[in-house]
Amino acid sequence: MEIYLDNASTTKVDKEVLEEIKKYYKKNYGNASSIHSKGQKISEILTQGRRKIAESINSEKEEIIFTSGGTESNNLAIKGVAFANKNKGNHIITTKIEHKSVLESCKYLEKQGFKIDYLDVDNEGFINLNELKEKINEKTILVSIIHGHNEIGTIQDIDEIGKICKDKKVYFHIDACQSFLKEKINVKNFNVDLVSINSHKIHGPMGVGVLYIKTGTKIESLFNGGNQEFGLRAGTENIPGIVGFVKAIEEQQKVDLNEIRNLRDYMIKKVLEIPESKLNGPKERLCNNANFSFKKIEGESIVGLLDGKKIFVSTGSACSEKDIEPSYVLSAIGLSHEEANGSIRVTLSKYNTIEEIDKFVDELNNIVIKLRRISPL
Ligand SMILES: *Cc1c(COP(=O)(O)O)cnc(C)c1O
User: What pLDDT is attached to residue 9?
Assistant: First the structure.
């Protein structure tokens, strides 16, 4: 039996979601731009989906832009706002622990003459609000900050950051791909202008996401083409993906997050009984996240040996897995090279059981003992 504990990378698609998607490949196919009735039915489905997603974050449906996923939403938010507001200023503030799609968008903008400040974080992954305030100047156009962190689970204080941004009149974007439906996101209460979310982190299909764009936000489209998505995202809409995303939201809204949290807390307690192990990141974190370091051994070796037992976890973030350098996130929260290299990330979903966790901890314990026995460190 497989034990999947890498739900921050992606999640298993729900049965109900798959059934819904199938309908739109088999029978109800059509292009929302077609004027015949088959196309117009799809256009209505698209509007319905937009409305349901809007409801899930308390926005208006015209503020929901469908994209190909979190990466595209982040690119559109950052570059789209940068290009549209370059007459006002060329300064953007983000953090050192963002997802690559944010960091690389910012690096790209640096080559185009924009100035980017990458905020430090403390050893729990939180930014310093005073530092943010000090860094905002008359050239600042955008602040982009991850809401719930994909590696260490830190949940930033979006309320306070939003107030600062509103006060200073700069746009505020959050990457909520991990926090969506795990933490409350209400765009009418938060002072946010842009929110990135995606489907495949909540048991929906890959390749579909949303950028919430508050009405009145100055932003430019990145693609040239048709007039879809209010002119902000050219290209035929991914209807099966969108209906799958909507269904995934409905299913995820039924989940008791406390069950996941309790199972995760149980796991943390058991794992920390392993000698010279440590939990990385904050005390309060996303309900499904844990990140551990084990002294004297490599995270990659642990992942590899667990893989041999059909147990799937990750080292740091999926995107940095193939790099030799330790996770930039773990370095940013002050872990030494050795601690960062000896880390694994374990992320749960509603599908995990206590039996799976017991089996995982058992195998992990054996593997750590074995690796330490042969470790040169
Ligand atoms: C997964 C993820 C992304 C990228 O989303 P894709 O849909 O895979 O492109 C961006 N940010 C965070 C925090 C993520 O977890």
Answer: 97
